[in-house]
Amino acid sequence: MSVVENTAPDDADKASTLIREIQLGETKITLLGTAHVSRTSAEEVEALLDSKQYEAVAIELCPSRFDALNNPDRLAELDLMQVVRQGKAAMVMANLAMAAYQQRLGEQLGIEPGAEMRMAVSQADVHGLPVVLIDREIGVTLKRTARSLSWWRRAVLFTGLITSLISREEVSEEDIEHLKEGDVLETTFAEFAHDREDLFQPLIAERDRYMAAKLRAAAAEHPGRSMLAVVGAGHLKGIAMHLGDTDDPAETAKLLDSVPPKTKWPKAIPWIIVALVFTGFYMGFSRNPDLGWQMVRDWVLINGGLSALGALLAAAHPLTVVTAFLAAPITSLNPTIGAGMVTAAAELWLRKPRVGDFGRLRQDTTELKGWWRNRVSRTLLVFLLSTLGSAAGTYLAGFLIYDRLNS
Question: Among 307, 301, 299, which residue's Cα sits nearest to residue 333?
Answer without folding.
Answer: 299
